[in-house]
Amino acid sequence: MRAYTRQLPTGITMIGEGCGRVIESKSSDFPVGTVIMGRYGWCTHTVLDTKSKDPMNVIRKAPADYPKDLPQSLLLGAVGMPGMTALLGLTKLCEPKEGETVFVNGAAGAVGSIVGQIAKIKGCRAVGSAGSDAKVAWLKELGFDAAFNYKTVSSLDAALKEAAPNGIDCYFDNVGADFSSTVLNHMNLFGRMAICGSISTYNDKEPAKGPYPFVTILFKQMTVTGFIVTRWMNEWPKGMTQMVQWIKAGKIKYREHVTEGFENMPKAFIGMFVGENTGKAVVKL
Fold first, then answer.
1. CB 190 within 8 Å of CB 217
2. 159-187 residue pLDDT tens
3. Inter-residue contact 102 to 115 (CB < 8 Å)
4. Strand, coil or helix: 65
């Protein structure tokens, strides 16, 4: 994760988000027993400053009406940051319209799998790519109209042409680099692209080099926007409520890749970069 950690000093607690229960408190806003989520890093216990004004490190409470029959780990997944990334990134930046085609790569991950399902809720054709046949099969179970294994297709260009014969209107990008350069050639006029991540380049020691996309963006008159989901923090409560409603109604399905034990966090983390997880990767302490 050099894109995030290269700016941080050596020796700090590894960054990451957690969900836990308050066991001691001096704050009336967060009494003992409160379930919270926060970016407090890899640790079994932590002390949090409830008066911190850091907008990137807000302590969030679980919704008071969070259903007891849903796992709390979803507060780190479909109902948490990944779910909000999918919901707000897709609806606000791509603005999918009924009948349009939405393409998402990394589609079997915590964010991508939600993007495709929301696209279907919005009446769109959902197309996704993933890195194994098992993941592709799961995407089809979720209702994706088309999905392919990008590792085994002979040509990404041909696979996109077959999966999205009428072109792509909305592109939710998790991968970046050469992959995205190819996708841009399949975008329709006035297409919208939301850049959520660039996982293919995160561990590159040198900046990726490839075709310049600017002429394609120009003549297709595309809108291309990168985003960090915390820009819409004030809309998370409403979004979390919406996600719970869709899950309870069976419109959103999820998977979790659960690793047991704090000592296995490095293994679980590294596994994400080689595609071991389907859905949200979480570590149960």
1. no
2. 999 999 999 999 999 999 999 999 999 99
3. yes
4. coil
Residue 199 CA, chain-centre distance (Å), reads: 11
Judged by phi (left if over 0) then psi (alpha if -120 to 50, else beta), residue 27 lies in beta
- Global pTM reads 0.93
The two three-digit tokens of residue 267, written as one number: 């293994």
Are 13 and 42 spatial neighbours (Cβ–Cβ below 8 Å)?
yes
Compute the distance between CA of residue 222 and CA of residue 10 in angstroms, rounded to an integer.
40
Q: Which of 166, 220, 154, 225 is nearest to 190 (CA)?
A: 220
Percentage of residues in the chain with pLDDT exceeding 90?
Answer: 83
Contact 239, 62 (CB under 8 A): no
Which of these ranges, 52-61, 72-81, 155-164, has the smallest mean pLDDT? 52-61
Report how many helices (DSSP H) and strands (DSSP E) the chain contains, helices first: 9, 11
Alpha-carbon distance 102 to 126, whole Å? 5
